[in-house]
Design goal:
- The protein is of the alpha+beta class and 436 residues long.
- Helix content is 59%, strand content 15%.
- The chain has 14 helices and 9 strands.
- α2 packs parallel to α5 (153-196).
- The longest helix is centred in the last third of the chain and has 67 residues, at 317-383.
Length: 436
């Protein structure tokens, strides 16, 4: 129910605020007093197109705001479907700038004009001889029939249908995400193929660059190590030979003075260390081989690694290995999307089974109600001086679930004896439509 209407900067109105009490309100006035301006303002929050000529002061924007008291049972599914906060006292606002820009809000949440119109049309009906278009609106015709229900089948269906639409949107988002991921999958797999040609962990552990530097200078290294052995111990004038002589001389006099004894100990210690160094150098020299084949293999491997470092914009093999793990993780996520799609699809199938049962119940209920409704309408039309007129609610199946179940509906009529039922909008005059 409309409780308040606030109009700012519209047509002749600078600012008008109206409170509507419970019950029946009447607005009267002479021609030109502004009654139609109120309907024009209401039309804006019904989602009608805005005309900037209606803005009173072009330096300010026009604002129309309606406060409605809603029924949660009937409208909660709409709010859930459009991800809006439901409030029994709901405020609908429309703002139009002098540049023609329009914005719409439901409970201060920005919405599209289509969403605003979908809600407002469920809250406000405007009737006149030339504004009986609701009779051609399937939603309105369904409301006529479904208002006769005495059970909660429609409420259950509406709630479940909102869940069905939400799941459908979720599935669509997942399918689009999967398609994008599948487009990326081939690229990620190609990248991994490049990585699989290399053992990055081995490259990290073995320090390939050091190994390559050693192999590429093997001959010079062996030559230097061999020369070091000669200096240390390969002739009578070597370092170790001379140090032996020093140790022998100090050994002769160490008993004479504690300082000589300390020097003797230090020389002997140095002699042991130098002998150990000489053995290590000899061992290293023996282990180094000039292996041109292995050198070529290392060059190829390092070339591939350096190429990947540049391609993936990283600075070390460790960072490259971490990047490989990221790619593997992305591929695994693509698989998880497929699993999520199956999960949502399973939920949809479950909801569809329940919806089908409820939709069939709705059809049965409507088929029970329609004959009595048609008969009652015929009696009322006779009172309206249309004694030969009849209306017919024609149900037909749809191909998929809608917010009204699995039924399509048409309002047919015939206004004279002997005629056939036709769509109301094709055969009824303006006056006949108003009376119907």
């Amino acid at each position: 129910m409309l409780q308040e209407l606030d109009i700012k900067n519209y047509a002749l109105i600078d600012h008008l605020h109206i409170n509507f009490a419970d019950g029946f309100s009447v607005i009267t006035g002479e021609t030109g007093s502004g009654k139609s301006i109120l309907l024009g303002a209401l039309a804006l929050i019904l989602g009608e197109r805005a005309d900037i000529k209606s803005i009173r002061n072009k330096t300010d924007k026009c604002i129309i705001e309606g406060v409605f008291k809603l029924s949660q049972t009937e409208l909660d599914p709409f709010f859930k479907e459009h991800d809006l906060d439901f409030d029994i006292t709901t405020i609908i606002r429309r703002e139009i700038s002098s540049q023609g820009k329009s914005r719409a809000f439901i409970n201060d949440t920005p919405v599209s004009l289509g969403t605003l119109k979908s809600l407002s049309e469920q809250l406000i009906d405007i009737h006149s001889q030339h504004a009986t278009l609701l009779l051609n609106d399937k939603n309105f015709v369904f409301d006529i029939i479904d208002s006769q229900f005495t059970n909660d089948i429609l409420t259950k269906y509406s709630t479940l249908y909102a869940e069905y639409k939400t799941l459908g949107n979720t599935l669509q988002d997942l399918l689009e995400k999967e398609q994008k991921s599948l487009n990326d999958k081939s690229y990620y797999e190609f990248l991994l193929t490049e990585f699989e040609e290399l053992d990055l962990q081995k490259a990290i552990d073995a320090d390939l660059e050091s190994e390559y530097n050693l192999l590429s200078n093997a001959e010079d290294v062996k030559k230097s190590l061999y020369q070091c052995q000669n200096y240390l111990n390969n002739d009578s004038n070597s370092i170790i030979s001379n140090l032996h002589s020093v140790a022998t001389e100090l050994d002769k006099i160490k008993h004479l003075n504690s300082q000589f004894a300390e020097l003797s100990e230090r020389v002997n210690s140095s002699l042991i260390e130098l002998q150990d160094i000489e053995h290590e150098i000899a061992s290293q020299e023996d282990n180094i081989e000039v292996d041109n084949l292995k050198l070529i293999q290392l060059e190829n491997e390092l070339s591939k690694i350096n190429g990947l470092l540049k391609k993936h914009n990283v600075n070390s093999i460790i960072e490259l290995s971490e990047h490989k793990s990221e790619i593997e993780n992305k591929l695994s996520q693509i698989g998880s999307i497929s699993a999520e799609i199956q999960k949502v699809q399973s939920k949809i199938n479950n909801v569809k089974t329940k919806l089908l049962s409820l939709a069939n119940d709705l059809t049965k209920q409507r088929n029970k109600i329609i004959p009595n409704l048609e008969k009652s309408a015929q009696g009322l039309l006779a009172q309206m001086k249309m004694s030969n007129a009849q209306i017919q609610f024609k149900l037909s199946p749809t191909g998929d679930f809608t917010k009204h179940g699995l039924d399509n509906i048409e309002l047919l009529a015939k206004t004279n004896l002997g005629g056939d039922f036709e769509l109301l909008k094709k055969i009824a005059s303006g006056g006949e439509s108003s009376r119907i």
